[in-house]
Design a protein that fits this description.
The protein is mainly α. It has four domains: about 10-75; about 85-190, no CATH class; about 205-335 and about 345-520, no CATH class; about 520-570 and about 625-728, no CATH class. About 65% of the residues lie in helices and about 0% in strands. The chain contains 35 helices and no strands. The protein has helices at about 15-20, 30-40, 45-60, 60-65, 70-75, 85-100, 105-120, 120-125, 130-160, 165-175, 185, 190-205, 225-230, 235-240, 240-255, 260-285, 290, 300-330, 335-340, 345-375, 385-395, 400-415, 420-425, 425-445, 455-465, 475-490, 495-510, 520-535, 550-560, 605-610, 640-650, 660-675, 680-695, 700-710, 715. Helix 7 (about 105-120) runs parallel beside helix 10 (about 165-175), helix 10 crosses helix 15 and helix 27 packs parallel to helix 29. The longest helix is centred in the middle third of the chain and has 32 residues, at about 345-375.
Length: about 725
């Protein structure tokens, strides 16, 4: 038998330490134990070793055995040898002397140390014994450290140093700075414009920390997660402290003056961030792992979770920075009410023109990052709402510029550039289209088409293509396209040409129901179209139809009549048409898809998931959203067949019928119900009674009741009259 001497296990220093702590000799004292720990703990490199040492120390019989040492000896375990004041005094004096010895070379070196002391301040105050006795001392200590930091920062940034030293100083400032403080005291004569550009470059520049997302390309499996978490991504200083760096930038932008040379800084910063966002969206599209929405999958790998955690940090970081940029415009530095009133018209016009350009860039950035928002949500982060709505208000204020038309056209063109097959796969293309649907909707609501005819027509054309695309299998994108079209039809003028468009659009709805549209969505769309047409009827001469109302109702009626009874449909969840907006002004839920409300694990998606916002102008007349069957005590409230779906959609128009044709169309709808099969009849009669009894004004209600009880004689044949169930 051969003996390999190389396999002999040689005891290490750690083994001797653990053995001494667990089985100390008779001569070992408390001082010896503390000395061992003092000499070894600063050099621990592995978490497991630290656990072993601490566990051995806590089981040490000398310090924690059955025979408790004297108080004087054991007190050393909980109290440093030096008094607290002496300990902090030594630190303060050494730092001050170190800077005074060579300010140019040593100033930047103390910045991270003072920043660390500042971060520990709250914990120090909580654990400090005799707080009242030591309060004055630590107040003076904190004040001296603050003064030393300000002095060292200004000196360190005044001399030419390497980019690494500058970045270290700026990160230290971000950790030290508090929002209640004034930035001016830190900068003194330093130019804040230089600081802003360096910070933006530190985060989003070509070599910035946020570029670390490209590392995910080389990480193929969860086996690489240790490397990912410990060193390469989340321990990178500019990523680890991304939130504090963003808050510092927010304050810098807020306090930036409105001089012309300052606008260049804002535009340069926006351009750098926009290039980063474009590259990021292209990266997500080019990698299959990250180009599909993980929220739709119950099995999301740790690698994907970490990627989306980083994406969420980037989104929130940019939102914080945009807040500062827009706040600069909304609340100019040093401009109170009186100063704002004294601004000349030229100054106000110049500021508005400047910020239209800035807001266009912000919208482009949000468009590129929309895939993050719709994946992980915003989790109640109200900053997104602020920048989104303020940007739109600034852009739409007064008039639409040619630059806006060109920029928005480019955004719409880029988002619709991908072939349909790709759009059904690539998450960034889908979400960019959703975002442009949102912008198109706002253009339709906010602008007169006569002023932006080309852009207006482009919005409608592109959205109609999306809504009618049969190869597109993204319900959210189809839904957003329909929302824009409904917004257009709600805002259009009632003309013969526009009525042709309405009828063409209804044909599209009929073709997509029930494969791509639910019965509830069909009802909302038909109600929206009918309400618009009936508010301002067009009278015809020498035509088969008397008016535009008559033509529209007959068009829907014929579709109901030609639909064969008994064709089943998939009874999907009721989802009203959403306008793809981040959240409405009064609703703070996140905009992640609501198609899947349960998940087996808690992760970044579940923590931020919430219902998508409802477009308040497009709610169903039957109380907005349908109640589940269980809430109606077993009474069915959703159509089960195609015929039921079309007739219920026609019933939604009843509250808007003119009184002159009210009874006539009630009778025609009744004939459709009678021509249906028995199961459909029972459901449709209940829905018709619900419409007549709950959704009519007093005049129509009186006419409807007379028709129901006198013409139909519903009471005699015992139809309808289901008890109304109220929710308290």
């Amino acid at each position: 038998m051969n003996f390999d001497s190389s396999k002999i296990l040689v005891p290490l220093e750690l083994d001797y330490l653990v053995n001494t702590l667990r089985s100390p000799g008779p001569s070992v004292t408390v001082q010896n134990v503390l000395g061992y720990l003092y000499n070894y703990l600063p050099y621990v490199k592995h978490e497991h070793n630290l656990k072993i040492v601490i566990a051995s120390f806590l089981n040490n019989p000398v310090c924690f055995g059955s025979k408790v040492p004297d108080y004087e000896e054991n007190y050393l375990i909980i109290e440093p040898t030096l008094p607290v004041r002496t300990f902090y005094n030594v630190i303060a004096k050494e730092l001050q002397h170190f800077v005074a010895f060579n300010p140019k070379e040593n100033s930047w070196k103390v910045l991270p140390i003072i920043a660390g002391i500042t971060l520990c301040k709250e914990t120090r105050d909580q654990l400090l014994p005799n707080f009242i006795e030591n309060w004055w001392f630590f107040r003076n200590f904190d004040s001296s450290m603050h003064s030393l930091f300000v002095q060292s920062f200004q000196i360190g940034m005044s001399y030419p140093v390497s980019s690494d030293v500058t970045d270290l100083a700026l990160i230290s400032l971000a950790l030290k700075f508090r929002l209640t403080e004034s930035l001016h005291q830190y900068f003194g004569a330093l130019d804040s414009r230089v600081i802003i550009l360096r910070l933006i470059s530190l985060i989003y520049g070509p070599k910035g920390g946020a570029q670390i997302y490209k590392l995910f390309e080389s990480l193929k499996s969860d086996a690489d997660m240790d490397k990912l978490q410990l060193r390469d991504v989340f321990q990178l200083p500019s990523v680890k402290h991304l939130n504090r760096l963003s808050l510092l930038l927010e304050m810098l932008f807020q306090q930036l003056s409105h001089a012309l040379n300052c606008l260049d800084v804002v535009l340069q910063s926006m351009n750098m961030m926009m290039r980063f966002d474009e590259d990021l969206s292209q990266f997500a599209d080019s990698h299959e792992v990250f180009s599909k929405e993980p929220a739709q999958s119950r099995h999301t790998s740790d690698l994907e979770l970490q990627f989306w955690t980083l994406m969420k940090s980037i989104l929130f970081s940019q939102v914080i920075i945009f807040q500062g940029i827009l706040t600069r415009f909304v609340r100019p530095k040093g401009a109170g009410l009186l100063v704002s009133m004294l601004l000349s018209g030229d100054q106000v016009a110049r500021m508005e023109n400047e910020y239209r350009e800035v807001c266009l860039s912000i919208l482009h950035c949000l468009c590129h990052l929309n895939f993050i928002l719709l994946t992980v949500g915003q989790g109640g982060f109200e900053g997104y709402n602020f920048i989104y709505y303020v940007s739109l208000e600034i852009i739409f204020h007064n008039s639409m510029s040619t630059r806006f038309e060109e920029s928005t056209s480019l955004m719409i063109d880029r988002s619709g550039k991908c072939p349909c097959a790709d759009r059904s796969i690539k998450i960034t293309s889908q979400t960019a289209n959703c975002f442009t649907c949102l912008v198109c909707g706002r253009i339709i609501y906010s602008c007169l088409p006569s002023k932006t005819r080309r852009l207006f027509n482009m919005c409608i054309h592109v959205r109609f293509e999306i809504a009618s695309d049969r190869t597109l299998h993204d319900p959210r994108l189809t839904e957003a396209g329909h929302s824009v079209l409904l917004a257009y039809f709600s805002a259009m003028e009632n003309t013969v040409d526009n009525l042709r468009k309405v009828l063409t659009y209804f044909e599209l709805l009929a073709v997509q129901f029930p494969q791509h549209l639910s019965a509830h969505q069909l009802s909302v769309a038909v109600e929206t179209l009918g309400k618009k047409i009936m508010t301002n009827s067009i009278q015809y001469e020498n035509s088969y139809y008397k008016s535009s109302i008559d033509e529209f109702l007959h068009f829907v009626y014929i579709k109901c009549l030609n639909t064969v009874p008994g064709q089943p449909i998939k009874n999907s969840k009721n989802v009203v048409f959403n306008s793809a907006q981040p959240v409405p002004e009064i609703e703070a839920s996140s905009t992640i898809s609501q198609l899947e409300k349960s998940s087996g694990t808690l992760n970044v998606f579940e923590e931020n998931k919430g219902e998508k916002p409802k477009d308040l102008s497009l709610k169903d007349i039957f109380s907005g959203t349908e109640a589940e069957a269980s809430e109606q005590f077993g009474i069915r409230v959703s159509p089960n067949t195609s015929r039921e779906g079309f007739i219920v959609a026609l019933l939604n128009v009843v509250p808007y019928l003119p009184l002159s044709i009210f009874v006539h169309w009630l009778s025609k709808i009744w004939s459709l119900i009678i021509a249906s099969n028995k199961n459909e009849q029972k459901f449709l009669i209940d829905r018709m009674w619900k419409c007549l009894s709950e959704n009519l004004d007093l005049n129509r209600c009186e006419v409807a009741y007379d028709w129901w009880f006198e013409t139909i004689r519903a009471a005699e044949v015992d139809i309808g009259h289901q008890p109304t169930l109220f929710k308290l």
